[in-house]
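tool_log.txt
---
The assistant was asked to compare two proteins side by side. It first ran the structure predictor on the initial sequence, then on the second. Raw inputs and outputs are pasted verbatim so the downstream comparison step can read them without reformatting.
(1)
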Amino acid sequence: MRLPIFFITFVLFVGILALKRRSQERKQQDLNESFLDRERRANLTRKQDISGLDFLKFSLDALPPDRYPDEELLMLETELIGYHDAKIINLSHYSNTDLKLMYGAANFNQLCLYDNNYHTLAKTLLTYAKRHQELGHVKEAIHVLEYAMSIQMELGQVYLLLAQLYQEQGTPEKIEEIKAALSSMDESFLSRTLPKL
């Protein structure tokens, strides 16, 4: 008597699992089709005018006025000077498909270049500030990091290093300025960075 009940329960269990699996496969297939349809539409989107985008203007004011005869600093300064006329924009909050839908597939490679400029500039500014710190030029390091903060670079290490230098310089109250600057930035970046301060 127990065997048929066990067998029926087992068959029902397997049947329910099979139904759930089919349902999940259907959902995944729908998601895939939706993604492919969106990607097809994105690839057919006509080229839009991107001249009005909010490009970041990199100022040579980021470079401290005192120049030092350090080879690494000079290399970094040369790299930074190259961004003076470059088109720079942070597009990391958009997917590739979003960018093509908004601005057309023909602009995609250019937009990727401008976004890459943004991320490379952020890393270069951080490296430049760290090198100043290594050489004992704390005032200059702070100057560079404050500039990066003023143009709202989304690189958490910039803000963490700046907070560390404020602490070391005996001005921890300035960390409130960092928090204020972060509060006007992207919510996901804020939530990742603010708790670490």
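(2)
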Amino acid sequence: MREIISEMEEYAINYNVPIIEKDSIAFIMKYIKANGIKNILEIGTAIGYSAILMASVADDIQVTTIERDETRYMEALKNVKKCDLEKRITVVCQDALEMNLSGVSYDMIFIDAAKGQYTNFFEKYKYFLNPGGVIISDNLKFHGHVGNRDNIASRNLKQLVGKLENYIDFLKNNEEFETNFYDVGDGLSVSKKKNEQ
């Protein structure tokens, strides 16, 4: 499996596919193990890199991962199959904001998709958390741009960073959830329902 992971890292570099930083996925894998997490929903599969690593923490972990880009979805399916994890990782090709879930709940929801939609993802999927479950968000520093918006020339990038900054404020001021921020990789947050602390 290590060989397949290396191949995926190489593919991500060659095809310019954003995958999670090594420090960040190491942090999440440790969290999964320490908290006995069994059911995971991931928003933003890319090529399946983080889904495969999260599933590899223990043999009884189930991951559902959503990807709207068909090319990446196909690549993720291929990688999941190579790792022999089809029974434990379900890859769905759909826009996460259009997906309808029912009768399912998760110990952990991992948000690593369109940065401008983080608040919408959080609001839509928070209802599918098990008691004691958490929502983890990645890329909150966004390559050092967050907090340095005035130095950005590109209007699109400036808007995107603005949305991420709004999301961070949304987490900080959220009455329902207690969020801890971690200076790991490209910036992570772990949000847990307040009445279940």
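---
observation on (2): DSSP finds six helices and seven strands in the chain. The longest strand covers residues 129-137.
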